[in-house]
Each structure stands twice: as C-alpha cells, then as structure tokens.
Design goal:
Helices cover 47% and strands 15% of the residues. The protein is α/β, with parallel strands linked by helices. Strands 3-2-1-4-5-6-7 form a 7-stranded parallel sheet, with helices on both faces. Bound molecules: nicotinamide-adenine-dinucleotide.
C-alpha cells in the first residue's frame, strides 16, 4: 500500500506555528486539504495563504480557542463543510507553563488542563460524529514529559500530558469499533515553545539543560526538525497505512524517552 495523504481531509489544532503550522504546510504540499485552528490569527492566516499558494493541497485557517467549547463545535462544523468530511485530526494546540513544583500558580494548572487536556478532549468529542461512520485517525500531542522527569519546572505540564496519553488510549479502545484510531505522539523538535521554555531558565540552568539534552538524545544530541523528522511520521499516521494501529505512543524524539 502506498503511504500517501493525497486528497485526505485533515484538521490541525494549534496550526498557526510550530509543529501544527509546519505540519499543516507539509500536509498541503503532499496533496491534503487542511483546516487549522489557533488563536494567533495573523500567523495562522499567513501560513494558510502561503501553503495554499504552493499547493497542490490547501490550508484554511479558522480562529478557534480550544478552551471555548462553542467555538470548538462551530469550528469543527466549519471544517467538515469546508473539507467535505474529515479523515484525520491532529490535536497539536498546547501550552507549557513553567513553575517550580512547590509554587505552581493556580492559573497555570487551570491553563495547562484547559488547553492540553479539556480542549483536546472536546475537539475529539466534536469530531466523533463525523468520524464514526467512516473511521479515521486521531493524533493527540503528548510529551516525553509524561514519561520522565524533565529539568524545566514542568510538573503541571507533565501531569497534563500524562492525562493526554491516558485519554488517548481510552478513546482508542472505546472508538475502535467505529474504525477510529487514536494515538499519542511525543515529539522532540525545535519550535517557539521550546525557546520559551528555555528562556525562563537561569544561565546555569540553561547550560545544564543543554548538556542534558546533548547527553540524552542518542540521535544527534539536539532537538529534531518538524519538517524533516516529525511530519513524515504524522503523514504515516494520517494515511491508511497506519489503519491497524491504535492506542499507541509514537516517540519521535531521537531516542530521548522510550516506551516499553
Ligand atoms: N516542540 C517540542 O519538542 C514538543 C515536545 C513535547 C510536546 N510538544 C507538544 O506539541 C504541541 C505543539 O508544540 P509546539 O512546540 O509546536 O508549540 P508552539 O507553541 O509553537 O505551538 C502551539 C500552538 O498552539 C496554539 N494554542 C495555544 N493555546 C491555544 C488555544 N487555547 N486554542 C488554540 N490554539 C492554541 C498556540 O497559539 C501555538 O500556535 C504542544 O501540545 C506541545 O506540548 C512539543
């Protein structure tokens, strides 16, 4: 079976920049029709225009804040109309608040859980009626931070990503009878969120972090590249070639953490 997404109808949340943005661009270049959701409207619109101009597929941007349930529902209806259905859904939108575990502001907990867990879950719930008669692929972005300790003050973030893995496995089981598969991805790639996480560290912590990354990523000792290293795996997950895979964790991380 050829591994292709030509003609696939794909929804990507967090599609204005970083993993979501560059993956949407990649999918369009591979012939897919894509709708992106985000709150960074200027970036989202610009990326969609650029990707569509290059073709052969297209990207259409829509403002959807995934903490707003009515906005999610309206956005999913828009995407289904625009694309003529849905084949694959990538829940990429995420936030990464950083604070020492002994002093996490309640607002950080609320944001991490609202975006990374509830937002993702409500997108899954909203797309379910559109996938249940034809099957499809749901791909939820977790993190190695759910599997191991990371030295960037990320207890709330790590906990939220642990919830993503548990949720994704559960819907993988519950919705398998509809031909809906549901997998988690743990990426380690260079994006603005990584820069932001590093920016809050002291100089000493930055040096320790760089050393830890170098020593703990066997393939290359550095973060990967979205287009070169991650997007081809996402293409596989959106394609029919992965139709017998569900409830898994795909670590696209140069070997940082692994799942036994
Ligand atoms: N980059 C990595 O190495 C890495 C590692 C582990 C996990 N992840 C996960 O991958 C996903 C993408 O990360 P990234 O590195 O591309 O980060 P990023 O910050 O570059 O992109 C995240 C996108 O999500 C959007 N977003 C945030 N809150 C939103 C909301 N309420 N509604 C809609 N959109 C919202 C942002 O505006 C942004 O465009 C996140 O879930 C992140 O936790 C990334």
């Amino acid at each position: 079976m050829p591994i292709t997404i030509e003609g696939k109808k794909i929804l990507v949340t967090g599609g204005a920049r970083g993993i979501g943005g560059e993956s949407a661009r990649y999918f369009a270049a591979e012939g897919a029709s894509v709708v992106t959701f985000d709150v960074k409207d200027d970036l989202g619109e610009r990326l969609a225009k650029e990707a569509t101009a290059l073709g052969p597929g297209s990207v259409t941007y829509r403002h959807v804040d995934v903490t707003n349930i009515p906005e999610i529902r309206a956005g999913v209806e828009f995407a289904v109309q625009e694309l003529g259905g849905l084949d694959a859904v990538f829940n990429v939108a995420g936030v990464a608040p950083h604070a020492p575990a002994e002093a996490i502001p309640e607002a950080d907990w609320d944001l991490a859980l609202a975006v990374n867990v509830k937002g993702l879950a409500y997108v899954c719930e909203a797309v379910f009626p559109h996938l249940k008669d034809r099957g499809g692929s749901i791909v939820n972005f977790a993190s190695d931070a759910a599997l191991m300790d990371v030295p960037v003050h990320s207890a709330a973030y790590s906990a939220s990503k642990g919830a993503v893995i548990s949720y994704t496995r559960t819907i993988g089981r519950e919705w398998a009878k509809y031909g809906i598969r549901s997998n988690s991805v743990n990426p380690v790639v260079m994006t603005p969120i990584v820069d932001e996480a590093r920016a809050v560290l002291s100089e000493e912590e930055k040096a320790q972090y760089a050393k830890a990354i170098e020593e703990s990523i066997p393939l290359g000792g550095e973060f990967g590249d979205v287009t070169q290293d991650l997007a081809p795996v996402l293409l596989f997950l959106a394609s029919d070639a992965s139709k017998f895979m569900t409830s898994g964790i795909f670590c696209v991380n140069g070997g940082l953490a692994y799942v036994r």
